[in-house]
Amino acid sequence: MAKEPSLVMMARESLEPKLQFLLKDMGRSIEEIESFPAVLNYSLQHLEMRHAFLEKHGVTGKPLGRMYRSSHYTFCTKLAKQPLQHLDGTPGEPPSAAETWLFKNVADKAASRERGLAVEEMRRVIMQAATPSPGVDAAVVGAPASTSIE
Fold first, then answer.
1. What's the pTM?
2. Burial readout 46-72 (b: 16 or more C-beta within 10 A, e: otherwise)
3. Is 20 helix (H, G, I), strand (E, B) or coil?
4. Distance between first and last Cα of the chain
């Protein structure tokens, strides 16, 4: 509890299925969970997904901290020795965490590019407005059209 005080506030209904999965399905010991109690903060779905992925690719015996604390990229490429795309779910299922991350990353890059283009266009318009046309007196550029200067 000293390592992970948030567990004190966690509902029993949330902890029990996670502990059951870790102890029975994964065959982990209480000592392993005590050494990385933060594993209980992850959703049961996340625990199951990562365990199933490693099991599918023949990876066993990795420490809990290594399995669950690492990023999607590190988890796939370093732990399971698989490309990130292999973390995708099967058709008809909700998108996997890796798929969601990839879509968001692509969308963020596109949005960033769009913002950059908009800024460049604004800059061009401002520079164009600030530069007087040939044959126009610089003092007249900001004056209303109906005002005559004598």
1. 0.54
2. ebbbbbebbeeeeeeebebeebbebeb
3. helix
4. 85
Cα Rg of the chain (Å, integer): 29
Domain borders along the chain are 5-82, 88-131
How far apart (Å, rounded) are the C-alpha atoms in residues 86 and 80?
10
- Give residue 97's identity as a one-letter amino acid code: A
Tell me how long the chain is: 150
Residue with tokens 């199951």: 48
Q: What sign has the CA pseudo-torsion 73, 79, 83, 85?
A: negative
Geometric angle at alpha carbon 75, from 67 and 84, rounded to 5°: 150
For residue 142, what pLDDT band results from cuts at 50, 70 and 90? Answer: low
48 vs 72, higher pLDDT: 48
